[in-house]
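Hi P.,

Sorry for the delay on this. The queue was packed all week, but I finally got your sequence through. Input first:
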Amino acid sequence: MKRVVVAPGDGIGPEVIPSALEVLRFFHPEWEYIPVYLGYECWKRTGDALSQRTLETLKKADLILFGAITTPPDPKYHSVVLRIRKELDLYANLRPVFGEGFDILIVRENTEGLYSGIEWQEKDRACTLRVVSEAGSRRIARFACGCAKRRRRHLTIGNKANVLKSDSYFLDICMEEAEKAGISIDKKYIDSLVLDVLQHPGRYDVIVTTNIFGDILSDAAAFLEGGLGMLPSANIGRHQALFEPVHGSAPDIAGKGLANPIAAIRCVSLLLKYVGEKPSAIEVEKAIQKTIADGIKTPDLGGTATTEEVGRAVLSHLASSKKAEGPDL
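Then the structure:
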């Protein structure tokens, strides 16, 4: 039995996570589900966005279903997501983007780079240290090569090695690991890569890059699927995995029933793949596509359905599919 920690967070997180949780419970009602309270609202009420007790609960989880976090421009507030990634060593961030004629997996280094958390402010400037280590680069390169081996055996390395020495270092390590793995490679400067992915997505399979570049690239690639409300992500470590929608907390629409729950529901699909249940993951994706084909869409996709209505429709399609299979004898 899996121990699943559920962390809705802030903004639209508490609106989209219930739909995702219902889908996960559909497949695994027997798992243990543990809710936790964290994030900006928690910080405002208690003075602590991520308590030590909550962190220990996260560390004991097998799986984490995560909503979204608001990070205010307050020097006393430290990013909850970055802290969790570091404390649990969730070093690989996976963001799949797929549609008609393309199937891309963006593999992003998740614990260092410009999100190293090493920052300071001086009298006339603020500084952030970009950390690109051999250990961090090598393990994400190996992870990406492993993904490529299971797909089309091709890897694109997103970089800015023409300007940044740290990216030249990252590029060299990725190339070494790809050669060891027998994976063909392309090297692309990140600015032209973002444009080319949008113009010619079918050219790409697995893309590996550093932390902030992966963040920007995957957000831009969301355009290919209809926006940020459609994309899930997985944060993978050696022993644990955290699944969160890409869209963030979107406080401007929080509480209005407008949030698209599909990214959160797709997180369940990624989770099921992670635990080795690919057929169930495919069922989730099919139920999502049927829901969209039925015209049950939130306003970001041009529809009028509420968050709950989309979630109920996906669950209904799953239930119908299960019923069509017949009873287990």
